[in-house]
């Protein structure tokens, strides 16, 4: 896989895992398979990455699918035995090492935008599995922000109001957000906290 070509003009989630046939990774890649439809609905591609070889991935996928009640792994899992890609993407775990003493991939996840730039990164210790609902939530905010001049407030969930970017004037906001917006009355008398729906 040529990474640049694979991303194309889509949002892409690239996620590394420390190793095949490991418990947390098996649950995570199973969850990625279970969430694949949610990502596809948003036009998002998935790409797994580890330093194990292709044959190991093929055998391990059987375990992932069995654990995940037959939900198929439909995304590619790239093999990076020389650790070239994980080094380029800063996905090397400084603490975890394999039997030969080489650093393992970290439990990292990058969301790459259509412009081929990393928009968001998560980095978890090997002992902590990812929260897939948070990945979906963060991805949704990135997509919405790329389509509208908005940001999402703390603990935002899909369907809730968003905030208008400070760079947008009230006149521009009236044109951009025909449903209107609500400005929060604050002690500073500044009108920077404006909520709307998109």
From TrEMBL:
Q: Which GO terms describe its molecular function?
A: thioredoxin-dependent peroxiredoxin activity
Keyword Oxidoreductase belongs to the record = yes
UniProt family annotation: Belongs to the peroxiredoxin family. Prx6 subfamily.
Q: Which PANTHER family match?
A: MCG48959-RELATED, PEROXIREDOXIN-6
Output the PROSITE patterns linked to this UniProt entry: THIOREDOXIN_2
Q: Where is the Thioredoxin domain?
A: 1-144
- Which Gene3D superfamilies does its entry note? Antioxidant, Horf6, Chain A, domain2, Glutaredoxin
* Classification lineage: Eukaryota, Viridiplantae, Streptophyta, Embryophyta, Tracheophyta
Q: Give the signal peptide, or none.
A: none
Main EC class the enzyme belongs to: oxidoreductase
- Explain the purpose of this protein: Thiol-specific peroxidase that catalyzes the reduction of hydrogen peroxide and organic hydroperoxides to water and alcohols, respectively. Seems to contribute to the inhibition of germination during stress.
- The active site annotation covers 25
Look up the EC number in the record and give it.
1.11.1.24
**Protein name per UniProt:** thioredoxin-dependent peroxiredoxin
| Keywords in alphabetical order | Antioxidant, Oxidoreductase, Peroxidase, Redox-active center
Note the InterPro entries from the entry. Answer: AhpC/TSA, Peroxiredoxin_AhpC-typ, Peroxiredoxin_C, PRX_1cys, Thioredoxin-like_sf, Thioredoxin_domain
Q: Which reaction does it catalyse?
A: a hydroperoxide + [thioredoxin]-dithiol = an alcohol + [thioredoxin]-disulfide + H2O
């Amino acid at each position: 896989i040529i990474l640049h070509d694979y991303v194309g003009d889509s949002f892409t989630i690239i996620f590394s895992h420390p190793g095949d046939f490991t418990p947390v990774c098996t649950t995570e890649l199973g969850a990625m398979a279970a969430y694949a439809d949610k990502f596809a609905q948003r036009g998002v591609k998935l790409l797994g990455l580890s330093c194990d070889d292709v044959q190991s991935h093929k055998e391990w996928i059987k375990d992932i699918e069995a654990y995940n009640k037959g939900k198929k792994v439909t995304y590619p899992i790239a093999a990076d035995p020389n650790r070239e890609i994980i080094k380029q993407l800063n996905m090397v775990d400084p603490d975890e090492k394999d039997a030969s003493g080489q650093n393992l991939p970290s439990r990292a996840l990058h969301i790459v935008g259509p412009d081929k730039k990393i928009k968001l990164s998560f980095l978890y210790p090997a002992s902590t599995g990812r929260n897939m609902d948070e990945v979906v939530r963060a991805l949704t905010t990135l997509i919405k922000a790329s389509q509208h001049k908005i940001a999402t407030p703390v603990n935002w969930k899909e369907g809730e109001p968003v905030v208008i970017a400070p760079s947008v004037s009230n006149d521009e906001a009236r044109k951009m957000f025909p449903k209107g917006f609500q400005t929060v009355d604050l002690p500073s008398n500044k009108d920077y906290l404006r909520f709307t729906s998109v």
